[in-house]
């Protein structure tokens, strides 16, 4: 398939199946079947895609293709002429075109795993001569009918299988994931346990990255070289810079810089961005926060709607109090500031560059740069209190 173009027809089969969306957009391990098919075709060398799709499903279908994919989308009524332009740009050396007419999967053939018997079964994956498209246009015939009539279908012997119900996908689920992981391993990704690791077909994992047992990468997650992800880590639409380590944590729609350390048991939520060499430690929850280079949120903290400067250190149990039940407010912590343990920063509030906040303080006013802020009651002692009021053992 190297260098080939592919034309994918996305039929609206909802009326026939009763499913809420076309079967090609049905989820397999959280990703649409179309995304798995595009991944398999790309791995086989298909470089350019033409998608025939109805407008209600276009956005969901486009999301199944990597951002850098050469993709043209058209409605069925306009497809014939636009496909001619699409194929002409591929060059004369391409005589064959891959055509997908309906739900199917494509696997690397393994007779032992698939245990195929009997005559080969044709699939919805076809090989069509480029001249057939021109013939359909000239004859003003139904494009799909002409292509099906003048094609050579791929069969189960080629690893191509038609799908007639979503229940069938359970048979292919482990095979598709395993094939995807094998391709990552061949590219230089170190995968510790193929049985407990899942990588979405739209995720990108760089060579020299390490995926430990229990790693789940969803959506358009990007893992940089030298990263160590896991064990037991879930990431969705997240970006990890080179050398970042994420241990037993969850990361959603966040971007982490290079050589950061997250976890264990951290919860990094949408809108979080970090610089390089930052740390988000154990039992820390972060949301909608920008964290500067070298900053450390060590443990047991909640930080939200906050600007954290470079080399800031938050002590154990530090919390940004960002919500008054009506509105959320932002906190700013300047470069090189130190926030002690069990500090509450009641937003909106700022801590100046190089300032210190004493442990146990509740800060409601801005702290000037280089100042020490103390906001806690003075300690006092009531003499002999324990002797008078302490509960005595029976």
From TrEMBL:
Domain of life the protein comes from: Bacteria
Coiled-coil ranges per UniProt: none
One of the protein's GO biological processes: cell wall organization
Pfam family, one: Hexapep
Molecular function GO labels: glucosamine-1-phosphate N-acetyltransferase activity; metal ion binding; UDP-N-acetylglucosamine diphosphorylase activity
UniProt keyword Methyltransferase, yes or no: no
Cofactor: Mg(2+)
Subcellular location: Cytoplasm
Gene Ontology CC annotations of this record: cytoplasm
Keywords tagged on the record: Acyltransferase, Cell shape, Cell wall biogenesis/degradation, Cytoplasm, Magnesium, Metal-binding, Multifunctional enzyme, Nucleotidyltransferase, Peptidoglycan synthesis, Repeat, Transferase
Catalytic activity: alpha-D-glucosamine 1-phosphate + acetyl-CoA = N-acetyl-alpha-D-glucosamine 1-phosphate + CoA + H(+); N-acetyl-alpha-D-glucosamine 1-phosphate + UTP + H(+) = UDP-N-acetyl-alpha-D-glucosamine + diphosphate
Membrane spanning residue stretches: none
Predominant location category: cytoplasm
Family: In the N-terminal section; belongs to the N-acetylglucosamine-1-phosphate uridyltransferase family.
Function: Catalyzes the last two sequential reactions in the de novo biosynthetic pathway for UDP-N-acetylglucosamine (UDP-GlcNAc). The C-terminal domain catalyzes the transfer of acetyl group from acetyl coenzyme A to glucosamine-1-phosphate (GlcN-1-P) to produce N-acetylglucosamine-1-phosphate (GlcNAc-1-P), which is converted into UDP-GlcNAc by the transfer of uridine 5-monophosphate (from uridine 5-triphosphate), a reaction catalyzed by the N-terminal domain.
Name the UniProt record assigns to this protein: Glucosamine-1-phosphate N-acetyltransferase
Organism: Candidatus Avoscillospira avicola
